[in-house]
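Chapter summary example.
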Amino acid sequence: MASNPPGRCCTLGIKHEGTPSGELIKVGAYDAYLAKPPADKAHTGAGILFLPDVIGIWQNSKLMADQFAANGYVTLIIDTFNGDPLPLGPRPAGFNIHEWIAKGSDGKNPHTTEAVDPIVVEGIKYLREVHGVTKLGAVGYCFGAKYVVRHYKSGIQVGYVAHPSFVEEDELAAITGPFAISAAETDTIFPAEKRHKSEEILKAAGVPYQINLFSGVEHGFAVRGDPNVKISRFAREQAFLQAVTWFDNWLL
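The structure predicted for these 252 residues follows.
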């Protein structure tokens, strides 16, 4: 693997303050959150598919989608968990995240590639057909990173991920466009050896790539970092800026 499977750290963090300004919608059968850019700042034909961590569509991801929209990109978060995201915070005794991925909370709603891939494709189709997106970027956080990597084949042109999980080496090797990563210094899911291996794979793939490593932070910092801790706030803000700058350069 280019990154390890999700673990306990994937569900811990801080809920951020703010009032989301987008709207909850349906994309096919799936819940979604749509954030539109101001008319005078919109990048014509450019959009971002936001593939979230296991917390799904919630306060922090909504605020981040709003920020991407404020920078000119129509942004869609789609519920890749089909109504079954995990709540923020420690899991109850006996919870196994790998069983949840395999079967879902009720044993009948898996979050495997076979289940998630069609949801991602539905999101891409919506952005293209409803919002006229011809320049498609995607962001993926933790769990969502795997599906950014997997769906260059479905039309993603430029990708950005933070603290990725579950990415297979052959999936990363198959990407066909620019790709950027924000990584945490302390991360058992995407540790140093996985970063270095990812660098080798990206170099061999021959696409533009960037890997930024942030000190003093842990897995999940780009979405769930504590804004009251200076080093965490700085890393989170810079990771977001890395993403926007990446799209401004390679997507437009």
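To summarize the output: Helices lie at 59-70, 97-103, 113-131, 143-150, 169-173, 192-205, 221-224, 230-250.
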